[in-house]
C-alpha cells in the first residue's frame, strides 16, 4: 500500500533544514508532528519531600535540555543562588551548549561527554570527591543509576519533572499511513488515548529496541525500524520504506 501521510509523535523540528522536511519534499508525502507525551515540572515542595537540599551538592549531572531547564527552575523556586563553583557534567555537547541559556560558559566548570551516558562516566570518575545531584524525570534509563553506582561516588537522583501522556482526543477520527514512535512512552500514550486502537493498514515505525519491545507487547506489528547499519536515522528508514511502497 502506498504511503501518503505520516504522523511523527514528536514536536515539529524548529530547524528549516530538518531531514523530515526534505523527506516530505522528495517523496511527496504529508508529515504531521504531534507530541504524544510532554514534560511537566514538579514543584519545589515535591523536590523538598525527596530530601533534596541544593546547597549540599558540588556537582550537577545533566542528561538533557529538560534537566537543565528544571534544575534552574527549581533553584529559582527555592530561592537558591547557584554558586559559581558548581561543576556541571553534561551528557553531550548539545546539553552543554544549552546550558549557556543560564550560565556564563567561560566562567563555569563544565565537563562534556560525547553522546552516551557511558561516555560521560570517565569524566565523573575523575572527580570522585564531589557530591553529585542528578535532576531527572520520573522515567530514568536503568543504565544511568547502574553506571553511577559502579563509579563508587556520592550521588543522588531527584525527580524534577515528569513525563505525561498528552491528550490526543482530536485525532480520534484521523488516520495516517505511518505512525512514528521514539519511546515506549509514546506507545503507552497511544493506547491510553485509544484503548481500542487497531493497527489494520497503518504501518508502525519505531526507533530503538525498547520501543520495538513496547510496540510488540501491545500487539503491534513493527514495519519500519531504526537505527540499523543501513538506516541509522528514522528519516532514512522512512525514505527506504516509502520508495518501495510507492513504486508504481
From TrEMBL:
It holds the Pfam family HEM4. This is Uroporphyrinogen-III synthase. It comes from the Bacteria. Residues 30-235 form the Tetrapyrrole biosynthesis uroporphyrinogen III synthase domain. GO terms for cellular component: cytosol. One of its GO terms (biological process) is uroporphyrinogen III biosynthetic process. GO terms for molecular function: uroporphyrinogen-III synthase activity.
